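FYI - complex with NDP, inputs then prediction.
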Amino acid sequence: MAKKLFAIFGNPVSHSKSPLMHNLAFTGLNFDGCYTRYRLEEGERLRETLFTLGLKGINITVPHKEHAYEACDILDPFAQKVGAVNTIVEKEGKLYGYNTDAPGFLKAISEFKEVKTVLFLGAGGTAQSTSSILRDEGYEVTLLNRSAKRLEKYKAEGFKTYTFDDFVPSKYDLVINMTSAGLEDDSLPAPQEILDHVIPQAKACVDVIYGKETPFLKLSKSHHKPTKDGSDMLLYQGIIAFEYFTDHQFSFEEIKPYMQKAFTV
Ligand code: NDP
């Protein structure tokens, strides 16, 4: 059988750890696959590009997760519900779409016990799928965002939402940075006076940004809180995608030790 080819599509995509993660798992598990990266400029060409390159599966990162959703023939019910696809598998000419970001995130925060209330700082694309899965699992999610515009659809779905101007703080078990604040700058995801109020009451603080200690995590540590960055979320979404790519030939626990090596090399 021919080697199966996979890729990550995004723009930019040069920083992505996904090729290393998946190739380590292919090698470790003796699966005849190869995973590369592809900078896709026009999201509308996602489907055509996948077929032209002869790919059996792709992951999709910023800014193409909504285009990925549009490109699929068959959607997993959760991907359909949240309108975002980050994993596509090609089978007999049809494209099957999944969202592995949200279950990856859910697994990443599962180490924090007795958590009921969660404050999301940010209301972008990642917040959309993760807030939905958390709510399905029985968490109470409140969203606090810089601008009002992005909060509209959350409000319509029944989430409690605030901007910095109308925030009425409460006690939250987990405070999570879902923004890109701190990714390429030194900004906090919300005004410090708000954070200095909610962090001390939290059991732990989480950031979806990985590979660096953000100002949000630094501030959380200064309040002596347990913290966690986005590395496990990245790892776990990758493992779940790998399960789809290899048609569930390998279990989560079999894949994990190989893919995890990408975070230590
Ligand atoms: P979006 O562009 O969809 O949303 C960005 C959000 O961040 C908005 O709510 C925006 O607020 C807010 N924001 C941006 N800059 C600031 C700032 N300086 N201060 C306050 N709020 C700000 O991004 P995504 O949801 O796609 O990604 C969010 C983060 O998640 C990124 O850092 C990304 O790297 C990370 N991520 C991590 C993953 C992992 O596996 N660990 C997987 C996917 C994403 P506004 O509405 O006011 O503009």
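The chain has a mean pLDDT of 96. Residues 231-245 form the longest helix (15 residues).
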